[in-house]
Amino acid sequence: MGVTMAGSSVVYHSLMWCCSILPRWRITCYKGWTSAHFASAASYTTFHENWKVKSSKDSRHRVTKLWHVGLFRNRVFYCTSSAGAWEVPLTSERYGVQRLPFSHVSDKDLAFFEHTVPGRVITDPDMLKPFNVDWLKMVRGCSKVLLKPRISGEVSEILRYCNERNLAVTPQGGNTGLVGGSVPVFDEIILSTALMNQVISFNGVSGILVCQAGCILETLNQYVEEQEFIMPLDLGAKGSCHIGGNVATNAGGIRLLRYGSLRGTVLGLEAVLANGRVLNCLTSLRKDNTGYDLKQLFIGSEGTLGVITAVSILCPRKPKAANVAFLGCGSFAHVLETFKVCKGMLGEILSAYEFLDDECMKLVQKHLKLNNPLTGEGSPFYVLIETSGSNAGHDEEKLNNFLEQVISSGLVIAGTLATDETKIKALWALRERITEALTHDGYVYKYDISLPVEKLYDLVCDTRARLGKSAKNVVGYGHLGDGNLHLNITADSYQQTLLNAIEPFVYEWTAKYQGSISAEHGLGFKKKQHIYYSKPDEAVELMQKVKAMLDPRGILNPYKTLPTQGSH
Ligand SMILES: O=C(O)CC[C@@H](O)C(=O)O
Ligand SMILES: [Zn+2]
Question: What atom in ligand 1 is closest to the CA of residue 447?
């Protein structure tokens, strides 16, 4: 048959068999197969070339030089001039927030900051603009000072001073959050971790990395990859997000299915408390039962309990073999059934199980000009399955057996398989760039929901039915393997009436099925009032007591995470 790879031939034979019984099945295997075999191979060339043009980092750097607002591997936005660039309403005005009685920054304060972090005090209003607005351009503060410490001692000095002076502080990493947690609401001082970007140590035996909070996730991944390890987390904003911000928000992402959450992989951290004291829990031990595990308080606390300045993190070995299958399914029930089969047949090599609906596919096609690699009419649902293992032959065999099973049983109606890195990246772009495509579609109402997996897509269907034509698009995608749905709704502009139709409907629906209204993005500013849909009063009350104990004056990231007192 002209196919020499043992692993591929299994798929090839099964495919030939499937073609006869399932005429809709289309597959491209990029390794060892020629385009003569499959009609869809030709379409891949276009797909790949498109991807290269759209994703070229060089062109991004060129463009963003004009006015660099945010550079994300998969999330980019920029403006060509500062004049009239920001039409983002002030958060305080759009949401009617009352400023808490913090002090205002005086010239004397600025002199202190200049003394503490010389040359790293930014007060130029134009330079401050991008730090005052979130990546989604939905919330905006009006901070007049940005500080860039390099070491935890400087953070300590700053916080001790701010606490005494009753000055509010917003810690900021890469500013890639999606819930308005990393930008000020009023004039809070922005404490950027951008210059705290040093690796402290890496142990090539244990895989334990100790680094400062401002290291960029992608840079860290490249660093540990050189030593045959990978970071235990990966997410769309990897090119900009800081590891400290990842830990502070307990970011999830696409590797969680395989390596677990940061609550397990973060072994230790250093945090500076509101009063300036440095809490050094930067241990690098797998096991440590000496008292309460205080680091857990800071993981996911969104900068409200302390500023994370360094982390110790357990990195897995770099897998020797990786494969990505991009499959089309005829229904969500089939997506679920495929997942079940996948877990059973791929077992330990399964590293991601992501899904998107056809509406998402249409958006990445329309706004980012990405091509659907599966030719013919679209599928209602797409699944991206990644395997990562230590033995290419073994993985291929397992994957081929799995594909044979899901094809022959009719669970999967179209598919494509990639084994080389460039092509794997191209397939991942279809999933990872949905957020970016949505921003081109208009104003986006974002929901990040955890639900029992079998209920996951019902929420999308019910929301779509409820909103009818008042929404432009209602889409569902996410980390199916983690039971995490990203429900996104777009409209031409922000409309209060549409918001009223969505909320509290989506939250009540989620609560009814014991889901979480914030699976992996945090509560930040935008979701904090809705915490009660997922946590009992007693839990919220205890959180407020912990906050009051660690930050009695409430200077750390005010207006975030916890609901306004007395609002319930
Ligand atoms: O934009 C979103 O709603 C999700 C973003 C991110 O968590 C993802 O999984 O792509
Ligand atoms: Zn996500």
Answer: 3
